[in-house]
Specification:
The protein has about 270 residues and is of the alpha+beta class. It folds into 2 domains: about 150 residues, Fructose-1,6-Bisphosphatase, subunit A, domain 1 (Fructose-1,6-Bisphosphatase, Chain A, domain 1); about 110 residues, D-Maltodextrin-Binding Protein, domain 2, CATH 3.40.190. It has 9 helices and 15 strands. Strands 4-3-5-6-7-8-9-10 form an 8-stranded mixed beta sheet, sandwiched between helices. The termini are far apart.
Length: about 270
Amino acid sequence: MADAMDGRIAFALQLAAAASRETLKYFRTNEFQVERKSDRSPVTLADKQAEQIVRGLIQNQFPNDAILGEEFGGIAGSSGYEWIVDPIDGTKSFISGVPLYSTLVGMTFQGQPTIGVIAIPALCELVIAAKGLGAWYGSRRWDSNAELAIPLEQTWVSKQSQLSDGLLVTSQADNFQRRNAQSAYAALEAEAYVTRTWGDGYGYLLVATGRAEAMVDPIVNPWDVAAVAPVIQEAGGTFSSWAGDFDIRAGHCLGTNGLVHNSVLERLKPFS
């Protein structure tokens, strides 16, 4: 198990690098068209190309591992490992030329989140975590072809105990309406010192690096959170569904520094 994990930790970084480089080829260019999926959410050539590259690398390196991605669904495996990836988390930001989209690479073992990488390609930021090994932050020019010699430093969540003195981040605010939880958002916004919609993977990176106290997501899929769950936990924070369970398939979630978790959760539980 330890040897398998070591190889997969390094490989997770390789996947993040490959996907990040591919997305940057298209970012702030006119080289892609925006399509609409059946749920009206946007997708671009960059989303598809990056995911295909990641899937190909996984199938070549670990052919018995399962794969789940946003654009091309799932492939069953027999090893107990599953890679859950979203090369562009925050496609609306990407389309708009906002550098806050993320590349997410997560891996589970027997259903439990075990490895997570959050890369912010346009900002050159990265957090990687593995179960029991902590969370580590660094920076890298993802458009470089240099080897993955990334100087990493261990990162921790903040020690701020009151949301009234902290930063609350979320994804698109009107997603609370889709869960009929507008009152929860209003209460949290009123309580927090500052609230911003710097959401998606970037919001969880802010929590993991101690720059935000809480990130709340009303609507998520497994590929949105499989990578961020171990990052938040290994940085010393708490990740859960709105019901308080550790479940990446619940459809809603929050990641916090742990100290404000219960107070935020109290607002959200009635809408879980």
